Amino acid sequence: MAEGKFALVVNCMDGRVQAPVREYLCERFNVDYVDVITEAGPCKSISDNKDTEWLKALRAKIEFLAEKHGSKDMAIVGHFDCGANASLKDAQHEQILASVKVVESWGLGLSVIGLWVGDDWQATEVLG
Ligand SMILES: [Zn+2]
Prior knowledge:
This protein has one domain (about 5-125): Carbonic anhydrase (Beta-carbonic Anhydrase, Chain A, 3-Layer(aba) Sandwich). It has four helices and five strands, in the order βαβααβαββ. It has helices spanning about 20-30, 40-50, 55-70, 90-105, and strands at about 5-10, 35-40, 75-80, 110-115, 125. A five-stranded mixed β-sheet has the order 2-1-3-4-5, sandwiched between helices. The longest helix has 17 residues, at about 55-70. The structure holds zinc ion (ZN). Zinc ion binds near residues 12, 41, 79 and 83.
């Protein structure tokens, strides 16, 4: 097992959201490190929940990180002005919540939350 406490996040690849998400999750989960899987607008693709190679690969990455670093908590992120997801805030909030349900349904033993990074570039939790 690695030294320190880890959480993990499925974040967008957009550079503007990396720091606020890491800072939020370190505080929220009281962890030393946040492992990051970056994808293009992931909350849209995960919420589609199609049986794709992409989704299988994503699940494998989550399982790998959770096992490797003993993470118990993870987050899925959507954000303002996403180049890969033109959906507006309310629609993205629905996608984020649906994505949380998809990952929870995999039964990986991870607690999953949704995060939104708004036009102020601050991370806030999306509550169902
Ligand atoms: Zn994005």
